[in-house]
């Protein structure tokens, strides 16, 4: 065992020992070699000689600037490689040419500026690649093309780069998850969907994507896609044609964009959609039949928009909806009769301008109600069942009937852990008193 390291079983731990090079005398039966948090600046082909059993190698948090071309040629059994948080700017083109058994490669948070088109070509067992947090500006077509040789369920993370475009010219069926978030993409890479036919999850969040006129008229095509994240981009408008061919989509994230005129008819061919996030947009109204085709939707988030009006038939068709979030909007009135989902259990209406709130027997399934920070005076008539509610920040009129209504509610607002933080506004003799103190 190297004098600067600790050895136990088949693990050699040299973490945080101020090493400037890979030590010698590493046991030939070593399976795990941990070299993280040192000062190693370069590695050579002979540094890992005769380690035929080595499967896990961690070189993270070093000062690597140079790596020999065939550095990994002496470790034929390597399965997991981690080189992250280093000033490394380039990997040799044939760096992985002799690592046919490698399954996971972690190269995040380095200074890599480019990826060789054939870098992973010989990694026939590869399942997961993380290249996030580097400085790659363009992923050439051949670089993605090589993934058609990889095993199914390959996960590729290239987020947090400075990439402005992605090119895919030939089909691949192996990539299942692709993360291009936190880049600088300005247009939707529709070829990624069309040619990576096995793709199930595509994350394009936190880019600068704008949907063009051509995009609006041309459907995105991929019948296997389950999750599409377009949040925090610059999308201002969508049309029915755009998502019409994503027929197996289950989760769609469009929050943090600039959507204003909005109708959900664009997902008419996505009958399996279960989660839709639209918060942090500029939607002002919800029209009738906006959600008619989303019968399997479970969760709908419309918070932090500018919604001031909801048509009576806006939520028609949401028969399986369980969670509805309308918080931080501009609603003054909410008529609970517009809700027709027998599965709805959570309704969030906090931080609006509500002065009137009403429900009907259709609300019997609700077990969690949040109406904090509105202008409500009277608690609405509610189906006769026990449920939890958050009520603080309103103008409660503490009458006998109102207090009686609250007797069957678990009020969750808490000031000191014991008493509720819900205060009476009227009548004058109760003003400023906690509701829990009035009998």
Written overview of the protein:
The chain has 439 residues and is mainly β. It has a domain at 1-88: Leucine-rich repeat, LRR (right-handed beta-alpha superhelix), CATH 3.80.10.10. It has four helices and 29 strands. The chain has helices at residues 141-145, 190-195, 213-217, 400-406, and strands at 6-8, 11-13, 32-34, 42-43, 56-58, 66-67, 80-82, 104-106, 128-130, 138-139, 154-157, 165-166, 175-179, 201-203, 227-229, 251-253, 275-277, 285-286, 299-301, 309-310, 323-325, 333-335, 346-348, 356-358, 368-370, 387-390, 396-397, 409-411, 424-426. The strands form six sheets. It has a 19-stranded mixed sheet, with no helix packed on it. It is elongated, with a radius of gyration of 28 Å. The termini are far apart. 41% of the residues are buried. Residues 145-153 have low confidence and may be disordered. It comes from Ciona intestinalis (Transparent sea squirt). Keywords: Leucine-rich repeat, Repeat, Signal.
């Amino acid at each position: 065992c190297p004098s600067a390291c600790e050895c136990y079983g088949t693990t050699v731990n040299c973490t945080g020992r101020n090493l400037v090079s890979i030590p010698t005398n590493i046991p030939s039966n070593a399976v795990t070699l941990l070299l993280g948090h040192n000062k190693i600046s370069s590695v050579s082909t002979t540094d890992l000689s005769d380690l035929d059993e080595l499967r896990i190698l961690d070189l993270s948090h070093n000062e690597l600037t140079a790596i020999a071309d065939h550095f990994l040629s002496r470790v034929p059994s390597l399965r997991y490689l981690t080189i992250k948080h280093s000033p490394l700017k380039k990997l040799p083109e044939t760096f992985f040419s002799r690592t046919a058994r490698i399954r996971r490669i972690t190269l995040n948070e380095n200074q890599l500026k480019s990826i060789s088109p054939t870098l992973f070509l010989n990694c026939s067992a590869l399942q997961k690649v993380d290249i996030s947090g580097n400085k790659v500006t363009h992923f050439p077509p051949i670089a993605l093309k090589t993934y058609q040789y990889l095993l199914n369920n390959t996960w590729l993370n290239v987020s947090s780069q400075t990439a402005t475009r992605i090119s895919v010219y030939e089909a691949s069926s192996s990539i299942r998850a692709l993360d291009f978030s936190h880049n600088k993409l300005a247009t939707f890479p529709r070829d990624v969907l069309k040619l990576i036919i096995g793709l199930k999850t595509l994350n394009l969040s936190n880019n600068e994507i704008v949907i063009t006129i051509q995009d609006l008229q041309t459907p995105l095509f991929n019948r296997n896609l389950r999750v599409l994240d377009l949040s925090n981009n610059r999308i201002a408008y969508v049309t029915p044609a755009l998502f019409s061919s994503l027929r197996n989509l289950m989760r769609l994230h469009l929050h943090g964009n600039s959507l204003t005129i909005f109708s959900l008819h664009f997902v008419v061919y996505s009958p399996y959609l279960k989660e839709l996030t639209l918060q942090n947009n500029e939607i002002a109204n919800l029209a009738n039949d906006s959600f008619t085709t989303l019968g399997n939707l479970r969760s709908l988030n419309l918070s932090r928009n500018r919604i001031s009006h909801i048509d009576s038939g806006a939520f028609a068709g949401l028969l399986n909806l369980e969670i509805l979030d309308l918080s931080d909007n501009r609603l003054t009135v909410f008529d609970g009769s517009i809700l027709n989902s027998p599965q709805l259990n959570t309704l969030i209406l906090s931080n609006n301008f509500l002065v009137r709130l009403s429900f009907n027997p259709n609300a019997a399934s609700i077990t969690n109600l949040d109406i904090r920070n509105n202008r409500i005076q009277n608690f609405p008539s509610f189906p006769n069942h026990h449920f939890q509610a958050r009520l603080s920040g309103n103008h409660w009129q503490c009458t006998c009937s109102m207090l009686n209504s609250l007797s069957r509610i678990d009020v969750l607002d808490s000031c000191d852990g014991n008493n509720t933080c819900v205060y009476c506004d009227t009548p004058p003799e109760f003003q400023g008193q906690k509701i829990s103190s009035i009998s």
